[in-house]
Amino acid sequence: MSDDPATLQIEIVFADTDEQRLLNLTMAAGTTVADAIEQSGLQQQFPATDLASLDVGVWGQPAARTRILRDGDRVEIYRPLQMDPRDARRTLAEHGQAMGQKSTDT
Question: What are the beta bridge partners of residue 96?
Fold first, then answer.
């Protein structure tokens, strides 16, 4: 948390299929979700992904990009799912497996 009321300490997280980033940033008070994402540099780190088109949230709750952040907020950028989790569980169950279980196929 920031001791200066003019600044915020926030986290921004994003993961693609191969790598993930968690950034701890200091932002000016009044920063929006969109501002934080833009200033984070994540778009340059993931140039193949249009971050502006992805859904976002704060602490696991969907959020508008215009939402003004508070000190300690965690901004999450959600990529589209490759498969619905219910379908993934169903497919694994058909093969006698569970989520998080290592495959016994070799």
Answer: none
Torsion, Cα 75 61 80 67, to 10 degrees, reads: -50
Q: Where are the beta strands (DSSP E) in 39-97?
A: 55-58, 61-62, 74-78
Distances (CA, A) of 92 to 18, 88, 101: 22, 6, 9
23-71 pLDDT tens trace: 999 999 999 999 999 999 999 999 989 999 999 999 999 999 999 999 9
- At 75, which amino acid appears? V
- In terms of Cβ atoms closer than 10 Å to its own Cβ (0-12, 13-18, 19+), residue 60 is exposed
Place of tokens 């300690």: 72
pTM for the whole thing? 0.73
